[in-house]
Design a protein that fits this description.
Elements (H helix, E strand, L loop, with lengths): L1 H14 L15 H9 L8 E6 L11 H8 L3 E6 L1 E13 L9 E8 L7 E12 L3 H15 L6 E5 L12 H10 L3 E6 L11 H7 L3 E5 L4 H4 L9
Parallel strand pairs: 1-2, 6-7, 7-8
Antiparallel strand pairs: 3-5, 4-5
Helix pairs in contact: 4-5
Length: 234
């Protein structure tokens, strides 16, 4: 869900001429409208939403309003706690001895080339940040389960994401969507133009699956998805 909500916030900023990196109060996101775009009056056999929050995910009172709205819309909520993760960062270059690193950067292996007395040493470090873990993998598991539960009876799979990269513990949305397509499913991707991976729009991929794969961009529904702007739709 983070991919869709971040895309919504960034698209709103662009529409208002606000720099992407500028902090603003996020407009209210209308999950009811998103659900209507995804289902389009079709019955849903399963609705899964995965996301993360900073503290105590098991308590819905800690969820942002759009997640609570999604629960009211009948989604099976899979909300995880964010965890501390290490992100690579450049620390610098020195001769002979590695630099002293201050917290929260953690020193990693020092790579050297040749004689330490004459060659530069490169130090790589890691910064600790809070981030999601296991969120995408939950959705990948449910994608596989849906295909297995409907062997011989392929249906429609609607994905609200733009991500196609390999996840931390699985192969990524593109690979699981491809498996569903190969099993005869129709796959619809609900996404934003600014956040979609180019892998989804690859001409060879689009040609291979033709009408079985469809992309629906949320950009044209930006106003309707803004619950502050269109409260009557909430």
């Amino acid at each position: 869900m983070s991919n869709i909500f971040i895309g919504f916030c960034n698209s709103y900023k662009i529409s208002q001429g606000i720099p992407i990196n500028q902090y603003i109060r996020a407009p209210a996101f209308n999950v009811k409208v998103l659900t209507s775009i995804m289902q389009r009056k079709r019955p849903a056999g399963k609705k899964i939403l995965a996301g993360s929050v900073a503290i105590t995910a098991s308590d819905p009172n800690n969820w942002p309003p759009y997640l609570m709205d999604a629960q009211a819309q009948g989604y099976d909520m899979k909300i995880m706690n964010r965890v501390q993760k290490l992100s690579p960062t450049k620390v610098g270059r020195r001769r002979k001895t590695p630099p002293q690193l201050s917290a929260p950067v953690l020193a990693a292996e020092v790579l050297t080339s040749g004689d330490d007395s004459t060659e530069e040493q490169m130090t790589t470090g890691f910064v600790t940040r809070n981030g999601e873990q296991g969120v995408d993998e939950i959705l990948h598991l449910n994608m596989v389960n849906s295909v297995l539960d409907c062997i011989g009876e392929p249906a429609n799979m609607v994905l609200a994401t733009g991500d196609a990269a390999q996840a931390e513990f699985s192969e990524g949305f593109l690979q699981y969507a491809t498996r569903a397509l190969d099993m005869g499913w129709n796959v619809e991707l609900i996404t934003w133009k600014k956040t979609i991976s180019s892998a989804w729009t690859n001409p060879a991929f689009r040609k291979q699956y033709g009408r079985c794969f469809r992309i629906i961009y949320l950009d044209e529904f930006l106003d309707e998805l803004n619950a502050d702007l269109c409260p009557s739709l909430a």
